[in-house]
Amino acid sequence: MDLGLRGRPAIVCGASRGMGRAIARRLAAEGAAVTMAARNPEGIAAAAAAIAAETGAAVIPVAADLTTEAGRAAVLAACPRPDILVNNGDGMPPGDYRDWDREAWIRALDMMMLAPIGMIRLVADGMMARGFGRIVNLVSRSVKSPQAELGLSNGARSGLVGFVAGLSRQTVARNVTINNVLPGIVDTDAQRAHVEGLVAATGRPFEVIWAERAAANPTGRYGRAEEIADAVAFFCAAGSGFVTGQSLLVDGGQYPGTY
User: Where is the signal peptide (predicted)?
Assistant: First the structure.
């Protein structure tokens, strides 16, 4: 199915690996002109070159820390008129709330709430003026099914989702939608880092925790980064203009609720 993205300028944040890289590849395969941003210069350059070679799309790498104004400005300098923005970035490691001081909370808010809002602030008005925009925030199932050890993520990412809930109703009349994708357990480096944090906290073997988490999912497995990318691509599609302010769980059915 043609998603209507050919030639659309797109920004994908946190795109050097994992789900961000899979999203950049998916949009590039649809013909979008993708600007990929991440902090590591070598990593983002290599990822962009690989995707460009594979898809034949125009792909621009930008090394930038999106928690800073300078980093966000560098991305917009490379792609000043984006039609698509995918916000994605690292989370905070698991831990105990007793150990999280004010500095940890501010760092979490900068990474998972304020940086995405800063990117939205830079692109939303231009999208509305041009009459097309698709903004997708890669968040986490933790905003719907909180995990105690992920309290920093529970709080900061929920703040982003709450902000989007209001803004998305203001932008949609100009064909600018804002939605969220909530991944569950996905086989990525970030998931391995999360399990390593649980190993440090519990002393249990990595292989045991990894296998238990897969077995607890109704699918019996971890998700693939490409499955998350497909969900993001749906929200980016030209035909998705009547869907806004929504949070889509992509978690293999692990969330136990009806709604």
Answer: none
Alpha-carbon distance values, 117 to 3, 160, 161, 189 (Å): 26, 7, 10, 25
Collapsing DSSP to helix, strand or coil, 97 comes out as helix
| 3-state DSSP percent of the chain in helix, strand and coil, to 5 | 55, 15, 30
SS (H, E, C) 12-61: EECCCCHHHHHHHHHHHHCCCEEEEEECCHHHHHHHHHHHHHHHCCCEEE
| Domains annotated on the chain, with CATH | 9-184+224-249 (3.40.50.720), 185-222 (no CATH)
Yes or no: say if 85 and 121 are a contact pair by the CB < 8 Å rule: no
pLDDT tens digits for range 152-202: 989 999 999 999 999 999 999 999 999 999 999 999 998 998 899 889 889
Beta-carbon count within 10 A of 131 CB = 10
Using pLDDT thresholds of 50, 70 and 90, give the confidence band for residue 148.
confident
Question: Under 8 Å CB-to-CB from 181, ≥6 apart: which residues?
Answer: 136, 137, 138, 139, 228, 231, 232, 235, 247, 248, 250
Gyration radius (Cα) of the chain, Å: 18
pLDDT reading at 94 higher than 90: no
**How big is the CA angle at 7 (ends 19 and 58), to the nearest 5 degrees?**
60
What is the Cα 74 distance to its own chain's centre? 19
pLDDT band at 221 (very low <50, low <70, confident <90, very high): very high
